[in-house]
Recover the amino acids of this structure.
């Protein structure tokens, strides 16, 4: 039962993108079309599951002081494997994701889950957590990409739609549209969330840099 | 020379890292609330981007490529950047404490900043030579600085305005970022007109 909870919490209740607000960079950048979003989601999910499994299995071996560099090395290794697989089997996807594929290394969802969950929990629980978070990430990307592609490009997964294809709002597929749609989605989540979450800032809980970031904010607030 | 100016201007305005490539969004949204922290953060980013390019570019050209190890790029770069940032912090603390005092807090944040890893990889992908890569790193850093400083001004104005309940906090920040990014789109095509389609 607890395992089921580990799996499902990432999909809606603790959705990494829309509720925890992690991994904003790939979310904004790769949600221009549905296929890109699904490709990015799948690549990140694979890395997330295996990094959670490896880190959880090694959690008693990795010394606490150097854990972040260790996690980064493990994650970078996994990303390299995924990068090579994508290059070999889906060269078109590799082309359209470009720089954002190697940048999965610094995606804070992955480091965040390693730090928050995998380093404290058993292997199976961590694998399920990784799978749930990965699916949540993919769903959020898919939702955003669907909005941007349907209204911005008048198509869905590359198939042109009637009416919309002639009346599309191109700006939505460009950079400003990314920020705009993401802002609207988070506002919608705020509006319809059952329990009112406290005023939302950047999702810092899961981020390994949260400590330094909060220190800066506190200092700025004092001035 | 024109070449360098083109690279610099397009990195600052047209391919702005934050507003058109979506790299380094976390610090852009996280530490842009106050002008001085925004400026401090982006100065640290410029500094680390230059250092990281100066170190990773020779590694790629003289170590990875001759030995057919290009596939290790991601791992090597992130490790080099992480240790470089640590090293810079230690050196600054020992020899230039005044600079460490103003930039020190921002340095650990930069290790996993995707803009820094992004600029080093993009420099390789674009096929620049060393000087061009350094100019591009400088331009990207300046672009980040410009976006951060401008946006901290936008945010300070926003603080006093009346915002609908569910838009408070992050959503309205994103909408403001969208409008800021829209203004940067106005720079598109400027290079072609200035330098005759170069």
């Amino acid at each position: 039962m607890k395992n089921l909870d580990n799996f499902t919490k990432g999909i809606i209740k603790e959705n990494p993108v829309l509720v925890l607000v992690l991994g904003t960079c790939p979310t904004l950048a790769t949600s221009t079309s549905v296929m890109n979003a699904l490709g990015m989601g799948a690549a990140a999910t694979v890395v997330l599951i295996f990094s959670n499994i490896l880190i959880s299995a090694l959690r008693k071996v990795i010394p606490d002081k150097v854990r972040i560099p260790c996690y980064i090395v493990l994650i970078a290794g996994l990303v390299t494997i995924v990068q090579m697989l994508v290059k070999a089997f889906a060269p078109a996807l590799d082309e359209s994701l470009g720089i954002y594929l190697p940048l999965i290394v610094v995606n804070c969802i992955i480091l965040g889950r390693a730090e928050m969950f995998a380093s404290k929990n058993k292997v199976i629980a961590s694998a399920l957590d990784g799978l749930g978070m990965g699916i949540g990430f993919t769903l959020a990307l898919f939702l955003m990409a669907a909005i941007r592609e349907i209204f911005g490009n008048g198509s869905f997964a590359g198939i042109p739609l009637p009416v919309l294809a002639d009346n599309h709002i191109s700006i939505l597929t460009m950079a400003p549209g990314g920020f705009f749609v993401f802002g609207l989605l988070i506002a919608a989540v705020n509006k319809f969330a059952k329990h009112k979450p406290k005023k939302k800032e950047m999702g810092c809980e899961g981020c390994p840099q949260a400590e330094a970031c909060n220190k800066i904010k506190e200092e700025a607030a004092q001035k | 020379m024109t070449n360098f100016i083109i690279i610099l201007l397009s990195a600052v305005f047209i391919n702005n890292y934050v507003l058109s490539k979506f790299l380094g969004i976390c610090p852009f949204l996280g530490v842009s609330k106050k002008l001085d922290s925004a400026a401090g953060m982006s100065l640290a980013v410029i500094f680390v981007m230059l250092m990281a390019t100066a170190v990773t570019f020779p590694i790629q050209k003289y170590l990875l490529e001759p030995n057919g190890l290009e596939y290790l790029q991601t791992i090597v770069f992130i490790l080099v950047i992480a240790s470089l940032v640590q090293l810079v912090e230690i050196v600054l603390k020992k020899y230039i404490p005044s600079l460490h005092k103003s930039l020190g807090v921002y340095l650990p944040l930069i290790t996993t900043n995707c803009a820094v890893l992004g600029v080093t990889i993009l420099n390789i992908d674009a096929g620049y030579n060393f000087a061009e890569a350094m100019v591009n790193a400088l331009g990207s850093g300046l672009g980040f600085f410009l976006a951060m400083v401008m946006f901290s001004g936008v945010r300070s104005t926003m603080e006093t305005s009346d915002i609908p309940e569910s838009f408070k906090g992050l959503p309205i920040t994103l909408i403001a970022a969208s409008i800021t990014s829209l203004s940067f789109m106005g720079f598109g095509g400027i290079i072609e007109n200035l330098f005759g389609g170069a």
